[in-house]
Amino acid sequence: MSSRKPGHEPPPSEITPEAVWLSRREWMARAGLAAAAAGLPAWAARRAFAQDAPSLAGRPSPQFSVMDKQTSFKDVSSYNNYYEFGVDKSDPAEYAGKLQTRPWSVVVEGEVRRPQTFDIDALLKLAPMEDRVYRLRCVEGWSMVIPWVGYPLSALLKQVEPTGNAKYVEFTTVVQRENMPGVRYPVLEWPYVEGLRLDEAMHPLALLVFGVYGKVLPNQNGAPLRLAVPWKYGFKSAKSLVRIRLVERQPTSSWMQAAANEYGFYANVNPDVPHPRWSQATERRIGEDGLFTPKRKTLMFNGYADQVASLYQGMDLKANY
Ligand SMILES: Nc1nc2c(c(=O)[nH]1)N[C@H]1C(S)=C(S)[C@@H](COP(=O)(O)O)O[C@H]1N2
Ligand SMILES: [Mo]
């Protein structure tokens, strides 16, 4: 480890997950000590120290990044939807400190030639990390601009060799009953399940995310790994993944299960197709919400139409909402 010439930073791809994990433990210990010293509750310390999370660098990916002003780390990590921790925007930041993100593995199975269980440390090494700035548009009418760190989901799916029968991908996220106060309530059916068509999942924009702002993901953002599917409403970007199943038939997501007339399988951002309770024509960009700040016009496919519109050629996007 110490044989490097001074002045030579290791390239991001050479930063080992072991190093990430060690510094993470160190960070937790520091957070704990500081909490005790300051007489703070543990969650307050975790929040205060969130900015000191271990770094997770990626190479910049301008081709897959937007130029919009980025939402602050504070807003990205304190205004969240992660219903397993509660339905208020502040609940995930307050309660997700309890989520156990190690040990962690992800089962990839179903219509594949080589089903495998991947340890999180293997996943961190599977493909080169990239820095990508994506828009995130929540169906509730707000949006953010977030610098994720991750690599294309396709890199993982190729490892297991999908069979000709694989048409869809089903994503299942973690349930830790003791650590997730929200799963006591039947807001959704737990675990949280989402799905993509296989060609959507293989699209280069579909990102498997491990970090944000050059750091390991805060738990409230879906540690240790989550999806970012930027042309779809935020709920498609499932957090804290534990199972990925390649299937022949369209999966039923937790949101479809809860209200099929409100949440469809596709959930492509579309200003012309209103949700039954909310117009989707405009959005409030978090951090820009002054009293006189005009709302932004929501863009078709969240502004990613050039890259993804061809996936839906000939489809009725009102029927397939
Ligand atoms: N497991 C799980 N994943 C989830 C959710 C959730 O409640 N549980 N909420 C979704 C919704 S509605 C949105 S808008 C995004 C929010 O991601 P962020 O909090 O990192 O901005 O996460 C999505 N992924
Ligand atoms: Mo959302």
TrEMBL record:
Molecular function terms, GO-annotated: metal ion binding; molybdopterin cofactor binding; oxidoreductase activity, acting on a sulfur group of donors, quinone or similar compound as acceptor
Compartment(s): Periplasm
Binding annotation for Mo-molybdopterin: 80, 83-84, 138, 173, 221, 226, 237-239
Entry keyword set: Metal-binding, Molybdenum, Oxidoreductase, Periplasm, Signal
Keyword match Signal: yes
The protein's Enzyme Commission number: 1.8.5.-
UniProt cross-references to SUPFAM superfamilies, sorted A to Z: Oxidoreductase molybdopterin-binding domain
Record field: transmembrane: none
Stored Gene3D superfamilies: Oxidoreductase, molybdopterin-binding domain
Co-factor binding comment: Binds 1 Mo-molybdopterin (Mo-MPT) cofactor per subunit.
BP GO terms, sorted: protein repair
Cofactor(s) in the UniProt record: Mo-molybdopterin
Post-translational changes noted in the entry: Predicted to be exported by the Tat system. The position of the signal peptide cleavage has not been experimentally proven.
GO cellular component: periplasmic space
InterPro entries according to UniProt: MsrP, OxRdtase_Mopterin-bd_dom, OxRdtase_Mopterin-bd_sf, TAT_signal
Catalytic reaction annotation: L-methionyl-[protein] + a quinone + H2O = L-methionyl-(S)-S-oxide-[protein] + a quinol; L-methionyl-[protein] + a quinone + H2O = L-methionyl-(R)-S-oxide-[protein] + a quinol
Domain Oxidoreductase molybdopterin-binding span(s) in chain numbering: 100-255
EC top class, as a word: oxidoreductase
Family assignment from sequence similarity: Belongs to the MsrP family.
Quaternary structure note: Heterodimer of a catalytic subunit (MsrP) and a heme-binding subunit (MsrQ).
Function noted in UniProt: Part of the MsrPQ system that repairs oxidized periplasmic proteins containing methionine sulfoxide residues (Met-O), using respiratory chain electrons. Thus protects these proteins from oxidative-stress damage caused by reactive species of oxygen and chlorine generated by the host defense mechanisms. MsrPQ is essential for the maintenance of envelope integrity under bleach stress, rescuing a wide series of structurally unrelated periplasmic proteins from methionine oxidation.
Name of this protein: Protein-methionine-sulfoxide reductase catalytic subunit MsrP
